[in-house]
Amino acid sequence: MSVFKKLRDEYVISHANRIRFPKFISSTIVRKKVTFYGRVQKVGFRLEIYCISQRMKLTGWVKNLQDGSVEAELQGEESQIYFLVNCMKSLKRASVKKMTITDLPISEGEENFTIVG
């Protein structure tokens, strides 16, 4: 791992762990596929989603796509998923130009959140 990537990853983890969560009002468990377009690769975007998802106990996965976008399937309380999406849209080191959100069926028995690829 390059020195730059190691420093970036340490910064991303530190940033993600400093985010203050609001008091979430309990909401329905849902699964959403979210695709982020813009400058979202090589800026720690997947790692940030992973860290925040872990803290909120969401399940699912996140991966880079070949077209330069990042795709995530997020499962958990709807209010938490939208909080995470808004965090990602407001990241200064990335630039989300467009986003798509699709409803998916719940994935029963899923326990973790992972970075794919």
UniProtKB/TrEMBL annotation:
Active site: 46, 64
Record EC number: 3.6.1.7
Catalytic activity of the protein: an acyl phosphate + H2O = a carboxylate + phosphate + H(+)
Pfam family, one: Acylphosphatase
Xref: InterPro entries: Acylphosphatase, Acylphosphatase-like_dom, Acylphosphatase-like_dom_sf, Acylphosphatase_CS
Keywords assigned: Hydrolase
Signal sequence annotation: none
GO MF annotations, alphabetized: acylphosphatase activity
PANTHER family: ACYLPHOSPHATASE
Family designation: Belongs to the acylphosphatase family.
Name of protein: acylphosphatase
Organism name: Paenibacillus glacialis
